[in-house]
């Protein structure tokens, strides 16, 4: 009989530095489906200072992924004080200095490009949004041009644009400049908010309707969650992060039945701890399968997983089927 063709390489994934070995092994197991892995390795601290987390630039990981046919495009993130990143992206000289710092990172190893994941650019006050969004788009445009001159990929990670969120992002300019625009389509309900699904088909519909109107579908990567949140019911405390594996182990431990929320196609359960009620919402392969038809509707073939080592192992079969 004819050999079975490997699944198409339609998946990217982030590799968390805090569980690097397990995530790396996970990437190698599924290398046939992965076209890009983004180790979560670097952090911007100022315009001219980009530093590495523990394990950043590990040549064994880079070489192993390359040997498996997977591109390595590390992520640069930031957690700066309010307004600090805005002051970088809106100042011509600081932007130029920052691009030089980013290029030093990409030249430091045999990387295939960079993924820019900047999430605190939004300044306080409506009057500044247009200026900050424009500055960020200019930074990306200039960085992408420099990366392309080096024959490197330029990837940009953004939050979803919906009726109530994401207004700071200039999707049109970002999509024109970058090779890939990654949309973090998760945390519809997040750690410091009220309990609920991390994503839902109706939410994906709104995200992709807006995104594909501004960015070619071939450039979009839809972010998929491989994790969940464990909230205290009625509590204002930050929810606990749980991977799929942790959520499933907890569900079995407390004897909660498996069930999918009919509106969001998302697994969830409740349990008692120390006399207090808690609720867990997470994502698995079955839930993701119910979300993928929305991607097909809008012609989006590429996904990006947060994160390697978090996910339901059955998710890879689901993604192979599209």
Question: How would you explain this protein's 3D organization?
Answer:
- With 322 residues, the chain is an alpha/beta fold.
- It has one domain: Glycosidases (TIM Barrel), CATH 3.20.20.80.
- It has helices spanning 20-29, 59-67, 84-89, 92-107, 126-149, 171-177, 201-214, 244-254, 285-297, 315-321, and strands at residues 11-16, 34-46, 49-52, 71-72, 75-78, 113-117, 153-158, 180-183, 220-225, 227-232, 240-243, 260-261, 266-273, 276-282, 302-306.
- It has an 8-stranded parallel beta barrel, surrounded by 4 helices. Strands 11-10-14-13-12 form a 5-stranded antiparallel β-sheet, with helices on one face.
- The mean pLDDT is 95.
- Helix 6 links the parallel strand 7 and strand 8 (180-183).
